[in-house]
Amino acid sequence: MNNQKLVIIDTGCANLASVRMAFERLGVAPQVSRKAADIEQADKLILPGVGTAVAAMKNLNERELVPLIRAAKQPLLGFCLGMQMLAEASEETMSADGRLIDCLGIVPGRIRLMEVGDLRLPHMGWNQIEHDETHPLLKGIPSGSYFYFVHSYALEVTEATIASCDYGQPFTAIVGRDNFFGAQFHPERSGAAGARLLQNFLEL
Fold it and tell me: Where mainly located (predicted)?
């Protein structure tokens, strides 16, 4: 077993079992926790999430995780909604008044409802990502590789975009700023390419 301490942040809105098993297959025994001491002492952090930005940010605030995540110095990787929570705000609304949901504000950009024309929402299934093959998080993963997506909202392409995907229009597939990274797709459900991305993250 890899002896680095990997903590999966217990956001209360994720399928933690599948994420934990994906790392166990790579020889790492992750700890699931929302305790400040565990998060601060981790070598690497995972921020998972499924569902809505409203529920996810409510959980993070109630569990007093927002300042802990923002202050993290070690590499952190968000999955799916976990990636979206890294952005400045989300257009998913709490009510009909169109009020934006404040997110963590770690990476630039807003989460917007995807404009897909005649394509179906949610964007669900395998799709290709495009990148310049220089970032260590994507080592050994050629541009054009397929990953598994399930989402209706996405982060616009910004200067922090490491890889993009196209579904109706381009959106951010992987984002990175300093020690914070996010993948819109589900690496734990993306076969060999997903496993390689997780291994690359462990090696950062």
Answer: cytoplasm
Average pLDDT, the chain: 93
pLDDT above 70 for 95 = no
What is the rounded distance in angstroms from the CA atom of residue 89 to the CA atom of residue 183? Answer: 17
pLDDT for 173:
98
Is residue 174 in a domain? yes
Give the DSSP H or E segment for 69. helix 66-70
Active site residues: 80, 186, 188
- State the residue for tokens 């399928």: 15
The answer as to whether 60 is a domain residue is yes
Instruction: Tell the residue number behind the tokens 């809105």, with chain if given.
Output: 13
29-79 pLDDT, tens digit per residue, is: 999 999 999 999 999 999 998 888 888 888 899 999 999 999 999 999 999
Residue 1 lies in a domain: no
For residues 51 and 4, give the distance between their C-alpha atoms in angstroms, rounded to a whole number. 30
Domain ranges, residue 127: 6-203
| Domain-embedded: residue 42 | yes
